[in-house]
Amino acid sequence: MAVAIEFANVILRKSALERHVPGGIDALAQRPLPNLVEDEHLVRVGFMSTSDGEALISEVAALASPSFGPEGDVALVQWNVLPYPAWLTVGVVDDSAACWLAGTPPGPVAHPDHSTILLCSGITETQVLEALRAAADVSRAEPDASGDVRLTCGRDGALVDVRLLKGADRVMVMLDRRLSRRGHRVADLALLNALAEALRTRGGSILA
Q1: With 90 as the cut, is the pLDDT of residue 208 above it?
Q2: pTM
Q3: Taking Cα atoms as reference points, which of 150, 145, 158, 162 lies closest to residue 184?
Q4: End-to-end CA distance of the chain, in Å?
Q5: Where in the chain are the domains?
Q6: With respect to CATH, is domain 116-206 assigned 3.30.160?
Q7: I need a labelling partner for 15 at 20 to 30 A (CA). Which of 23, 27, 52, 131 fits?
């Protein structure tokens, strides 16, 4: 496979992470990352700025013991910013900018999981909660400082974080998978899709 790239991309070789960083890829996933995507060989974290990407590289390098090799373990990659590292191939796969381990076939492109956002017009927060409870167990938290309500929905070991943003006659619902639960990605995404479908049956419209 290949990993999608955009803007500034920190690319790490998975075997190096497992060999040099205590906790390996799972330890990386526990950090407050904006996104994370992986294929068989690589992990990619994308940023809007190179300085943020360089900061992550420094943080991960500081954890490495023994130190990463001088090249071939981690790189900051930007589209059309040459030269690319020799251990990576960068190109277009299925209309997406992507990179993959040199010497291996790109295969399909792995993309980051983004939030699913639904607009539920003409229904109340109570009705939104009823729809969520029809698909999962809901743990309710108190509203935060902005007045938004944050929930956790769980089902058979899967978890999805939910945020409700209330308006006068509508509720916007944000569904998110936790990047730290990389080992549960398939189950968590299935639950996220089930929650989105439950809201759609109540008139919710997917915005993103």
Answers
A1: no
A2: 0.86
A3: 158
A4: 25
A5: 2-110, 116-206
A6: yes
A7: 52
